[in-house]
Amino acid sequence: MTVLKKQIKKDTKAIIQDEKTEDLLSRSLQYLKAGYPVHFTGPSGAGKTSLALALAKRRKKPIMLIHGNHELNNKDLIGDFTGYTSKKVVDNYIRSVYKRDESVTEIWKDGRLLEAVKNGYTLVYDEFTRSQPSTNNIFLSILEEGILPLYGTKMTEPFVGVHPDFAVIFTSNPEEYAGVYQTQDALLDRLITIFVDHKDSDREAQVVSEKMDIDKSEAKAITSLVAALRKECEGDNGPSLRASLMIVKLTQEEGIPIDGSHSSFQRLCIDILGHQVSRCIDTDEPLKAAEKLILEACKNMKATSGDKGESDNEQ
Ligand SMILES: Nc1ncnc2c1ncn2[C@@H]1O[C@H](COP(=O)(O)OP(=O)(O)OP(=O)(O)O)[C@@H](O)[C@H]1O
Fold it and tell me: How far does the centroid of ligand 1 lie from the alpha carbon of residue 45, in Å?
């Protein structure tokens, strides 16, 4: 007898939706339906891009993704002439007559914004405050007048009308982050800005457990450890859910037990979290202080996850 095993393939990029995420997504979808752009802002790793993509997917329209960058310019957004095609016709049918007809045409390629605007796509503009505010000015005309001006393009028509299905979802990090430009008030004024903060360790544990296929209590032990270190940080630039996912992935790949008293687990946590924690605490020797905090958090974790397996703590 042949036994067919059903293989369940996990979509590791899919968003894990708890009640709060579901609520946020359905509210945001309503705002988009009403014609307002949605802007998710918050600390790094809080899940803004994942949310933006999940929201875009719900609109069931093609998605165009643009990443903010200080070098992004109007040619990237609107389009540019990318080269030439030339056509030459030589007519020498009658030997004494030589006719030559030559024409050269420039080739135009639509930029990503123009393509999205013309065809009614959902545009996800990730980290838009990393682009220069002057580049982002173009969104003022799109959002206010419903047109995309084609300035600086040698095109004969001055603008393109925005397709009624077009919608934009922006994401950004707060202004105090490095490499981020201050956004013009006029643009912010036209967006519905929702602050997306780190989830609490229970919600993070749910994401880690479902995404990485591990026991909820083990996931909770790791997200609590990361959340405890995040609390030690000044501002909101501490380690995020991303760090918890990294720790779990490496414990799985390297066969390291999820055990705060195990030296290889402690080493892994120091490698993954050390630098980030050292950057956000204010002491004379930040690296040493960060290491100490991580080891303490690992020890406290023992109580959370239960001490399974042998300890080979060298401390
Ligand atoms: N609800 C969720 N379900 C599944 N994975 C999630 C969820 N929230 C966050 N993640 C995961 O956490 C990590 C960080 O998320 P994401 O990249 O969306 O954060 P971000 O806020 O956009 O970060 P940054 O500001 O650094 O770009 C990613 O690996 C993402 O897959």
Answer: 5
